Every structure is written in structure tokens, then in C-alpha cells.
Recover the amino acids of this structure.
């Protein structure tokens, strides 16, 4: 342990490049896939179902966050937040609203799948689209309740033109306590619910001879998707966010540890990985409906002429 020259680590240049690349990739791919998914939902509007409404809300949560990416890319590269205090709060609020809104809607989709598979007779005719609308409103309220308190912590510094994704050093101890509480409520509890639901679902479908093969494949696709999403996106973000906050508390107390730099870099990488959920969430559309799967693929094929024209135009330009 070193108690001299104990300062917060500084971001390496390659980290800026990594985050910029991830944010641009997420913005372009996420915008394209979410727009395609939205078009699928419009085509299937007459076949509106409970799970379709949940997927639509998941898509809206993604779009809110994606629209802030160009501003975040500028801030990452210039290290200068020129968009004012108000928009700093909006950008950070949209991030957490997307994060916990996405987790919430994915949890609702998992519970719906659980009820449809494990208790089909009890739920048949009892779950209507009205219930899904009410559930969606409740989920938006809960995601806002989790996200709004974050704005009570200082986010913007006029002196350094910084827009903190957590808070400044003066309030880091309080923010760590806040972060641990909401990590448990907003991440751990939903993850336990999802694991419990799909654990029971796997037991049921493995013993069932009544369920069709394609139905089993849809359920397993969604299960694999959620496991990968939580393992490589949501879990690392929450783990390294809290470890980074704890390291900042230690630095403030002049207690430097050898692992602080590693945690700092892992925190930056995890921040990029968690943003990927906005680009990969449209894959839920392919996991919950055969019809939507077909239309989604057709829409992607329909985008090919646009890219072909772009390539032809590029190749015809003088070198």
C-alpha cells in the first residue's frame, strides 16, 4: 500500500479510442436494428400481443439512450462538456433509465414466458394487452424511481467542464452507498427472478412431449441471449462500477492499492460493454416470435440494396 502521491488514475489514450469505437458502433447498429424492429412492430400491430408491447417498450428505452451517443462521443474525445448542465443531467438520466428499464422489461418478458410455459391453463384468457400496458407503465415508473435519485448527486463541474457518470470526489462515499443499494434492487433481484424462471422452464420443457420443437428452441434462444447479456454487459458494469467507487473512497483516504489502476481500466471497458445492450436488445424480437423473426430478416435483406448503392458510389469516386 502506498500513501504518497495517491491520486485518481487518468484515462489512457487507447481507452478513448476504444470507447469512441464502441459508442459509434452501438449508435449505428443499434439505430438500424431498432428502427427495423419498430417497423416489424408496425407491420404486426393488428396482431398486438402482451409480449409485443413489452418488446416495444424495450425498444423505446434503447432509442432514448442511443440518441445521446453523438454527444458522449464528442465529450470522450474532447474531454470538455460544452452542452451545459441541463443536458448533462438528461444524458446521464437516459443512460440509467435505459439500463434499468431494459433489465426490467427483460425480466417481465421472462416472467411472461415462465407463466405461459409452466402455468398455461391458469394464465390462458386472464392476461390481456391491457395488463401488459399497465405493467409497462409500472416498469417505467420503477426505472425512473431508480434513476432520478442519481440526479441529486453533483454531475456537472463548470471548472473542469466535466459531466460525471457517477459524481464528484466530495460525494463519492454517499454515492457508493446509493450505488450498492440500487445494484441489489435494480440488478441482483431481477437477475435472480430471471434465473429462477428459466430454471423452472428448462425443467418443464425437458420433461414435456407436448411442446413443439420450434417452441422449445425459441425459449432456449431467449435464455441463452439473457445469460450472455447479463454475463458480458450488465454484471461487469455493476461490479466494476462499485469497485471503482470504492477505490475512489480509498484514494480520498490516502490509501492507494495496487489494483486500483486495473479496476479503473476495467470500469471504462465495462461502461462500453453495457452500452452494447442498446444494440443487441433487438435480438429479443428474434427470440419471441416466429412471424417477427421472418419479417425482421426480410427487412434486413431489404437494407442490402441501400448498402450496395453506397458501395458502388464509393468505388466510383476518384482515388
Amino acid at each position: 500500500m502506498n500513501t504518497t502521491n495517491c491520486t485518481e488514475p487518468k484515462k489512457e489514450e487507447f481507452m478513448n479510442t476504444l470507447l469512441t469505437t464502441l459508442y459509434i458502433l452501438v449508435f449505428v447498429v443499434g439505430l438500424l436494428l431498432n428502427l427495423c424492429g419498430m417497423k416489424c412492430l408496425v407491420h404486426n400491430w393488428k396482431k398486438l400481443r402482451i409480449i409485443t408491447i413489452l418488446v416495444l417498450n424495450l425498444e423505446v428505452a434503447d432509442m432514448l439512450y442511443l440518441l445521446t451517443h453523438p454527444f458522449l462521443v464528442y465529450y470522450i474525445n474532447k474531454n470538455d462538456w460544452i452542452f451545459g448542465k441541463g443536458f448533462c443531467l438528461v444524458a446521464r438520466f437516459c443512460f440509467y433509465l435505459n439500463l434499468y428499464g431494459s433489465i426490467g422489461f427483460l425480466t417481465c418478458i421472462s416472467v411472461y414466458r415462465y407463466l405461459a410455459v409452466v402455468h398455461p391453463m391458469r394464465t390462458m384468457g386472464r392476461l390481456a394487452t391491457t395488463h401488459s400496458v399497465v405493467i409497462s407503465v409500472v416498469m417505467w415508473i420503477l426505472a425512473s424511481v431508480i434513476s432520478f435519485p442519481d440526479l441529486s448527486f453533483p454531475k456537472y463541474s463548470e471548472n473542469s467542464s466535466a459531466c460525471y457518470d457517477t459524481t464528484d470526489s466530495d460525494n463519492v462515499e454517499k454515492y457508493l452507498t446509493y450505488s450498492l443499494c440500487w445494484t441489489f434492487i435494480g440488478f441482483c433481484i431481477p437477475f435472480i427472478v430471471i434465473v429462477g424462471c428459466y430454471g423452472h422452464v428448462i425443467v418443464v420443457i425437458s420433461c414435456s412431449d407436448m411442446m413443439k420443437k420450434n417452441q422449445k428452441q425459441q425459449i432456449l434462444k431467449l435464455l441463452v441471449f439473457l445469460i450472455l447479456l447479463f454475463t458480458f454487459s450488465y454484471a461487469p458494469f455493476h461490479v466494476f462500477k462499485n469497485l471503482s467507487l470504492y477505490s475512489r473512497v480509498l484514494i480520498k483516504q490516502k490509501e492507494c492499492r495496487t489494483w486500483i489502476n486495473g479496476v479503473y481500466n476495467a470500469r471504462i471497458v465495462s461502461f462500453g460493454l453495457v452500452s452494447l445492450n442498446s444494440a443487441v436488445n433487438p435480438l429479443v424480437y428474434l427470440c419471441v416470435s416466429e412471424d417477427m423473426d421472418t419479417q425482421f430478416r426480410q427487412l434486413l435483406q431489404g437494407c442490402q440494396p441501400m448498402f450496395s448503392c453506397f458501395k458502388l458510389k464509393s468505388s466510383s469516386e476518384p482515388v
Remarks:
- The longest strand covers residues 156-157.
